[in-house]
Amino acid sequence: MTFIAPCLRHVVTAFLVMALTVVSADAQLLGGQKNNDEAQRPSGFSDLMEAVGSGSRLLIRQIQPGEERDRVENPRYNSQESPRDSLKTFTEAMLLVSRGYDEIGYERALASLPAYATRAQADDLYAVLTRIGPISAAELPGAKRVEQSGDTRFEVFPLAVDHDWIWSAASSPPEGEIALRQVAPKKWLFTQTTLDSLPGLKKSLAAIPPHYDQAQDGQYFMTVFSPLYEQTSLLDWGFFALALVGGLVAGRLFHAGMKYLAGRANEDLTPLLGSTLKGVGRAGGLLIFIFAFTIALGFLTLGPVLKSLSYQIPRFLLVIAVALFILSLIDAASALFRSRIGTGKDTHYDRMVVTIIQRIIRVVILTIILLFVLQNVLGMDVGALLVGLGVFGLALSLAAQDSVKNLFGAITIFANRPFVVGDWIVFKGELGSHIAVVEDIQLQSVKVKDLSGDLITIPNMQFIDKEVQNLSARDYIRTELNIALPYRNAPDEVDRAIQALHDVFEDEEVLDSAKGHDRDGAHISFPKFEDSVLIIRAYYYYFMGEGEDVQRDTDRGWFTYLDHCTLVNRKIMQVFGERDIEFAFPTQTINVVPQAGEPVEVSQVKGRRQSAPA
What we know:
This protein has helices at 5-31, 45-63, 83-98, 102-110, 119-131, 143-149, 164-169, 192-204, 219-230, 234-268, 271-297, 304-340, 347-377, 382-399, 401-416, 491-505, 508-514, 558-578, and strands at 153-157, 178-184, 187-190, 424-429, 432-441, 445-450, 455-459, 468-470, 476-486, 523-529, 533-543, 600-605, 608-613. The model is unreliable at 1-42, 62-67 and 605-614 (pLDDT under 50). By secondary structure, it is an alpha+beta fold. It folds into 4 domains: 77-208, no CATH class; 234-379; 407-472, SH3 type barrels (Roll), CATH 2.30.30.60; 475-578, GMP Synthetase, Chain A, domain 3. It is elongated.
């Protein structure tokens, strides 16, 4: 899906950051005070992950059964000699009831309740216990501990464990208690007050999904997913698939339509409207899919855990859709500001500032949305995660020193403005010297493209203490031209060569090409004698524009400069040829001295007389 693809990067990034913060928070909690997981037990996504884990344990058990206790004939707990035995006997017995062993299950469960307790009361008590979360056997006093302490009463809810989270998760403040009392030596039963409190507790805790003991391998998976595949008919599955596919197709068509209109707007109207339509297409396409997905879920029979996800998943996708729309508004505002920027001297820098502000705002918006999703959709304690970042941040700061240096490098670039996007620069980096055009300036690096077309990424920190030559900031190019004349006893030939060069540089075609009217002309001189030639030196200028225009403000550059050099050199050759001024070229004179008595032969070579020994 093309309209979902732009948001997947943000979703993946959000979950990666969330995973890192959770790990760091857990590390700090292990080193600090004890944290009770049940006191802050989230529902929905975490319950689903636990159900998947339970299913994996069930699959492993099917592949490699090993030894398994028969919980019907040989249960782990089947007594009331301590609060631990009585409560665990009750919960294991009710698990047997959920598996279809009603008679033996209720028989064992009612043994932990007061006399004359009913099966309905056992069901209500089990429903309440699963909603306040499974209690580890280690948290419950066993027979030896009761004997040592002399206690005759044990309260499960709300004093024995921290259940502060229930008051915020429950539909109404729960009133009542769940407690066990010793009614005889080595016999603990739930109190009558517990049974009397069950109707009110069950009603107030109805909004909390059940949470089963992870020790029951595979049972939690069966409890969560059994309504989905046992009570959903094939016809309902067909309607679910039809609504889901219809939502995908409708969302894609809407996104394609908005993309087409955005392209037409960019061509005929304004980029601002095109950018807005693109954002509406992404967000609207996702909204259509969310609507269809919500309808599709209505055809499925979901248990308590999955039913909560049927609200959380669309809510999460809705936040993503709103985020995409907000980001599109940021892009549209950036396009508006760029369109309002004129063509003055600092317009390139203004566009660069708009780009960096746009990116910073996007990061801030994504951070806010991430925190909102963590706290309001996933139900996490953002404060605890931020505290956990303290430990993780210490380790991260040691590993991210280069990233911090690159960030300061970006600040240096934007403060000192050594170059802007589109400038040609010469920079000596770690891999050698680069002559390239600046493609993008990011918070961590600068991307440049050299003359070969290679894209090179340079860390920003390298621009802090190294020089950068900005070719696009120059307003002219000065060229040194050396012309060699042969040695002769004719000073007027030097004068004629100098005058010929003046005539070339004052030619109208040359002046137009160099934009040299009413500006510094060429400087021509006879500076020195070389070993075998006379040097005539000229300095001439190639201007980039009128007034104070620099290269980035015009369409002139290195290649137009080379064209100007070609024009000048051709003119020099033409004028020197017309005026019979000879260029010097490397020569070597060899004097041959004949021996005494040897004749000397005089021959003619190419119009010149040469002497050679006979």
